[in-house]
Amino acid sequence: MKKLLSLIDIKFWKFILVGLLNTAADAGISFALINLTTLNMWWCTAIPCAIASVLSYFLNKHFTFKNTEKGWKPVFRFVVNIGACYLLAYGIAIPAMEWALGGLGMSSQLQGNLTMLAGSCLFVALNYFGQRFFAFRNK
Predict the structure, then answer these.
(1) Among residues of the chain, what percentage have pLDDT more than 90?
(2) Any alpha helices (H) in 10-64, and if so which ranges?
(3) Tell me: the pLDDT tens digits for 7-24?
(4) CA angle at residue 114 from 113 to 119, to 5 degrees?
Protein backbone atom coordinates (compact mmCIF):
# COMPACT_ATOMS: atom_id res chain seq x y z
CA MET A 1 0.00 0.00 0.00
CA LYS A 2 2.85 2.36 0.87
CA LYS A 3 4.48 1.69 -2.52
CA LEU A 4 1.20 2.50 -4.29
CA LEU A 5 0.79 5.73 -2.31
CA SER A 6 4.32 6.78 -3.25
CA LEU A 7 3.10 7.03 -6.87
CA ILE A 8 0.88 9.94 -5.84
CA ASP A 9 3.56 12.61 -6.05
CA ILE A 10 4.05 15.85 -7.99
CA LYS A 11 4.36 13.90 -11.25
CA PHE A 12 0.96 12.37 -10.61
CA TRP A 13 -0.67 15.77 -10.04
CA LYS A 14 1.02 17.29 -13.09
CA PHE A 15 -0.19 14.32 -15.14
CA ILE A 16 -3.72 14.96 -13.83
CA LEU A 17 -3.49 18.64 -14.85
CA VAL A 18 -2.21 17.78 -18.32
CA GLY A 19 -4.84 15.07 -18.48
CA LEU A 20 -7.61 17.56 -17.79
CA LEU A 21 -6.46 19.63 -20.76
CA ASN A 22 -6.16 16.54 -22.94
CA THR A 23 -9.49 15.19 -21.77
CA ALA A 24 -11.25 18.43 -22.58
CA ALA A 25 -9.81 18.37 -26.10
CA ASP A 26 -10.37 14.63 -26.56
CA ALA A 27 -13.89 14.55 -25.12
CA GLY A 28 -15.01 17.66 -26.94
CA ILE A 29 -13.93 16.28 -30.28
CA SER A 30 -15.21 12.76 -29.45
CA PHE A 31 -18.65 13.95 -28.42
CA ALA A 32 -18.87 16.17 -31.49
CA LEU A 33 -17.95 13.27 -33.77
CA ILE A 34 -20.27 10.75 -32.12
CA ASN A 35 -23.20 13.17 -32.07
CA LEU A 36 -22.69 15.04 -35.34
CA THR A 37 -21.33 12.37 -37.70
CA THR A 38 -22.09 8.82 -38.72
CA LEU A 39 -18.59 7.57 -37.88
CA ASN A 40 -18.42 4.39 -35.81
CA MET A 41 -17.17 4.30 -32.21
CA TRP A 42 -13.60 3.38 -33.19
CA TRP A 43 -13.22 6.48 -35.41
CA CYS A 44 -15.03 8.71 -32.91
CA THR A 45 -12.44 7.77 -30.30
CA ALA A 46 -9.33 7.25 -32.46
CA ILE A 47 -9.32 10.66 -34.17
CA PRO A 48 -9.56 12.71 -30.95
CA CYS A 49 -7.14 10.36 -29.21
CA ALA A 50 -4.54 11.05 -31.90
CA ILE A 51 -5.01 14.82 -31.63
CA ALA A 52 -4.90 14.85 -27.82
CA SER A 53 -1.89 12.53 -27.86
CA VAL A 54 0.24 15.10 -29.66
CA LEU A 55 -0.65 17.64 -26.97
CA SER A 56 -0.01 15.04 -24.29
CA TYR A 57 3.42 14.13 -25.67
CA PHE A 58 4.81 17.63 -25.43
CA LEU A 59 3.21 18.58 -22.12
CA ASN A 60 4.02 15.33 -20.32
CA LYS A 61 7.53 14.99 -21.74
CA HIS A 62 8.60 18.49 -20.75
CA PHE A 63 6.25 19.56 -17.93
CA THR A 64 5.19 16.39 -16.10
CA PHE A 65 8.11 13.99 -16.36
CA LYS A 66 10.86 16.48 -17.31
CA ASN A 67 12.31 13.99 -19.76
CA THR A 68 15.32 15.46 -21.59
CA GLU A 69 15.97 12.52 -23.87
CA LYS A 70 16.43 13.57 -27.49
CA GLY A 71 15.71 11.72 -30.70
CA TRP A 72 13.03 9.32 -31.80
CA LYS A 73 13.24 6.84 -28.91
CA PRO A 74 10.89 8.71 -26.55
CA VAL A 75 8.53 9.43 -29.46
CA PHE A 76 8.51 5.75 -30.39
CA ARG A 77 7.90 4.63 -26.79
CA PHE A 78 5.14 7.22 -26.43
CA VAL A 79 3.41 6.05 -29.62
CA VAL A 80 3.67 2.40 -28.56
CA ASN A 81 2.26 3.30 -25.15
CA ILE A 82 -0.65 5.30 -26.56
CA GLY A 83 -1.48 2.59 -29.08
CA ALA A 84 -1.37 -0.18 -26.49
CA CYS A 85 -3.42 1.82 -23.97
CA TYR A 86 -5.98 2.75 -26.62
CA LEU A 87 -6.41 -0.81 -27.88
CA LEU A 88 -6.62 -2.22 -24.36
CA ALA A 89 -8.97 0.44 -23.01
CA TYR A 90 -11.47 0.47 -25.84
CA GLY A 91 -10.97 -3.22 -26.60
CA ILE A 92 -12.21 -3.86 -23.07
CA ALA A 93 -14.76 -1.02 -22.78
CA ILE A 94 -16.65 -1.55 -26.04
CA PRO A 95 -17.61 -5.21 -25.53
CA ALA A 96 -18.01 -4.78 -21.76
CA MET A 97 -20.40 -1.87 -22.18
CA GLU A 98 -22.29 -3.66 -24.97
CA TRP A 99 -22.73 -6.57 -22.59
CA ALA A 100 -23.64 -4.38 -19.59
CA LEU A 101 -25.94 -1.94 -21.39
CA GLY A 102 -27.18 -4.02 -24.32
CA GLY A 103 -30.44 -5.22 -22.79
CA LEU A 104 -31.43 -1.95 -21.16
CA GLY A 105 -33.20 -0.48 -24.18
CA MET A 106 -31.30 2.80 -24.17
CA SER A 107 -30.59 4.68 -27.37
CA SER A 108 -27.47 3.73 -29.28
CA GLN A 109 -26.32 7.33 -28.90
CA LEU A 110 -26.51 7.21 -25.09
CA GLN A 111 -24.88 3.78 -25.05
CA GLY A 112 -22.12 5.16 -27.29
CA ASN A 113 -21.53 8.11 -24.98
CA LEU A 114 -21.34 5.87 -21.89
CA THR A 115 -19.02 3.47 -23.70
CA MET A 116 -16.74 6.31 -24.69
CA LEU A 117 -16.67 7.56 -21.10
CA ALA A 118 -15.77 4.11 -19.74
CA GLY A 119 -13.05 3.62 -22.34
CA SER A 120 -11.67 7.05 -21.65
CA CYS A 121 -11.38 6.41 -17.90
CA LEU A 122 -9.61 3.11 -18.47
CA PHE A 123 -7.30 4.75 -21.02
CA VAL A 124 -6.24 7.45 -18.53
CA ALA A 125 -5.30 4.94 -15.85
CA LEU A 126 -3.30 2.74 -18.22
CA ASN A 127 -1.68 5.74 -19.88
CA TYR A 128 -0.36 7.21 -16.61
CA PHE A 129 1.59 4.08 -15.78
CA GLY A 130 2.72 3.65 -19.38
CA GLN A 131 4.06 7.18 -19.65
CA ARG A 132 5.65 7.22 -16.21
CA PHE A 133 7.37 3.85 -16.38
CA PHE A 134 7.87 3.30 -20.09
CA ALA A 135 7.57 6.30 -22.40
CA PHE A 136 9.26 8.94 -20.21
CA ARG A 137 11.02 6.82 -17.63
CA ASN A 138 14.06 8.38 -16.02
CA LYS A 139 17.23 6.44 -16.49
Answers:
(1) 56
(2) 10-36, 41-59
(3) 778 999 999 999 899 889
(4) 100
